[in-house]
Every structure is written in structure tokens, then in C-alpha cells.
Amino acid sequence: MRFAGRVAVVTGAAHGLGLDAARGFAREGAHVLLVDRDPAGAQAAAELRAEGHDARFHSADVTDAAQVAAYVAAALEAWGAIHCFFNNAGIEGHVRPLVEQEDAVFDAVMAVNVRGVYLGLKHVLPVMLAQGAGAVVNTASTAALGGSAGIAPYVASKHAVLGLTRSVAGEVARQGVRVNAVCPGPAATRMIASLEEQAAARGINDAPDRYRNAIPMGRYVTPDEVTATVLFLCSDAASGITGAHLQVDGGRTACPGGSALR
Ligand SMILES: NC(=O)c1ccc[n+]([C@@H]2O[C@H](COP(=O)([O-])OP(=O)(O)OC[C@H]3O[C@@H](n4cnc5c(N)ncnc54)[C@H](O)[C@@H]3O)[C@@H](O)[C@H]2O)c1
Predict the structure, then answer these.
(1) Catalytic residues, which ones?
(2) Across 230-252, average pLDDT
(3) 14 φψ region: left (φ > 0), alpha (ψ -120 to 50), beta (else)
(4) How far apart (Å, rounded) are the C-alpha atoms in residues 101 and 135?
(5) What domains are there in the chain, each with its CATH number?
(6) Considering only CA atoms, which of 255, 241, 253 is closest in space to residue 186?
(7) ∠ CA(179), CA(55), CA(6), 5° rounding?
(8) How many CB atoms lie within 10 A of CB 195?
(9) What are the DSSP calls for 60-113, one per residue?
């Protein structure tokens, strides 16, 4: 119960990694605000309440400043503080070479993955600074650490998330607030399935094999493996860590050749 009595706000909490982390925070005692534009988050919060946890859903589009201010206000109204913030909502965009990308899709990826993270930081950090304490984890990706042909807008957006993380960590470090990033490799959620389906539609039918062959562990990571890292970075055990990124990627970035010569 590392988060007993603490308040956690999770964006992109209706599905995938955000949902798993919201469950993780709740099951370790936190009051949890699940934020998502998908109303399915309400059901997720209800299920957590049925388990005896304190969870609420707040509908918001993270690209809209007023809606971001409103989810921060909702957490404060409910519990009076925000101790942990998992700034996680993201979209993948389209799989295709840059010269074929649609400008509107590029803009949408940047809006959610960069502006959404920026706005979350902008509105949550003043609360944490006033408290003199708080921990933020932004969801980057292994796509923040190198190129990936076919998803350049997504890769660019995740590089930006690391830039925000590192810069802001330096701005708030003396005031008791830590800002880190988690870099999942391919994880078993809707997003990776979408990338695989888009690749298949372009005639790349072995995308899952290509991904797995590039991962020394030979498998996708699971949402609970990402959650474990997010909760660690938000916990007191990580009190000396800020501005860092932690890969949860089965060794993909450490050994990009995967298991080629094993
Ligand atoms: N799954 C992977 O392989 C993987 C790997 C690395 C990083 N990531 C990152 O992890 C994060 C979560 O992805 P996921 O795999 O859980 O995907 P997902 O699609 O399962 O979940 C994303 C959630 O974000 C929400 N969302 C999207 N746009 C939003 C907006 N504008 N406002 C509010 N909510 C919004 C969606 O409704 C959804 O609930 C993303 O930032 C993604 O880029 C995922």
C-alpha cells in the first residue's frame, strides 16, 4: 500500500497502459482520477469502486487547455491534492512513409502526445509546487530513443516527450517535485495491435514477428510490467530519481539486434 491516502491522476486511463496503472495505484491505496476522452473510463472507475477502491472518472480531451484545467480542478475538489500524475494519453497515428503522411494526422499526433503532455505538466505542476511535493511520469516510448521507419510523426512526438521531461525536471527539482519518463517497448494493448494491422494493410504481414525478433526477450511487455515501473517512479523509493527515462522493453534499446546471433 505504497500510495495509501495519496492522490493519483492518470490520463488515457480508459484503456491499455493508463487503465492498468490506474488499477495499480488504486490497489495500492491511492485515490485515483481516471481521465480520458473515452467514456469507457467511467466503467473502469466503477469497477474499481466495486472492488472497494476510491476512483472517479473525469471526461476530458487532453489537447484542450480548459479541459485539462478542469480535470486538475476535479482532483483538487475531490481530494485536495495531487501527489502522483501519470501523463500518459497518446495516439499512434498512421503507418506510412513521411512523404505519404497526412498533415492532419501529424497535427493530431502532436496535439495529443506533445501538447497533451505539455498541458498536463503546465496545470498539474503548480499544484505539486504549492504542495512542495509530487511525482510525475510522462509516457514516452522506445520510439523516443531512436528512429522507426513508418511512424515518423509518432517518433518525433515521443522524442519531444523526453525533451519536456528533462527540461521540466530541472525546473522543479529544488521544490520537491520529480518528473520522469517511462519508455515502453511494444506492449500488448490496442495501440500495438493498430500498428500491426496498419502494417498488414500495407503488405507487411510479419510485423509481430519483426517486432518480437528485435526484442531480446522475444516478447512484448505486459501492461503490468509498465505499471510496476510507473508506480516505482512515483514512489518514495525513487526519491533520488528525476529527469530520467526507464525503458520497459525486453532489452530492445540495449540490444537493437535482438536475438539475431543467439
Ligand atoms: N502499447 C505500446 O506498445 C506502447 C509502447 C510505447 C509507448 N506507448 C504509449 O503508452 C501510452 C498509452 O498507450 P496504450 O498502448 O495504452 O494505448 P491505448 O490506445 O490502449 O490507450 C490510450 C488511451 O488514451 C486515450 N486518449 C487518446 N487520446 C486522448 C485525448 N486526446 N484525450 C484523452 N484521452 C485520450 C484513449 O481513449 C485511450 O484510453 C501512449 O502514450 C502510447 O504512445 C504505448
Answers:
(1) 154
(2) 98
(3) alpha
(4) 36
(5) 7-248 (3.40.50.720)
(6) 253
(7) 45
(8) 22
(9) --TT-HHHHHHHHHHHHHHHS---EEEE--------S-GGG--HHHHHHHHIII
Written as one letter, the residue type at 69 is A
Closest C-alpha to ligand 1, atom 23: 12
Half-sphere exposure of 259 (CA within 13 A, CB side): 12
Q: Is 168 left (phi over 0), alpha (psi -120 to 50) or beta?
A: alpha
The pLDDT confidence band at residue 210, using thresholds 50, 70 and 90, is confident
The cell 526484442 sits on which residue?
215
Check pocket membership of 36 for ligand 1, CB cut-off 6 A: yes
Note the pLDDT of residue 65.
Answer: 98
State whether the beta carbon of 84 lies less than 6 angstroms from ligand 1.
no
168 has which bridge partners? none
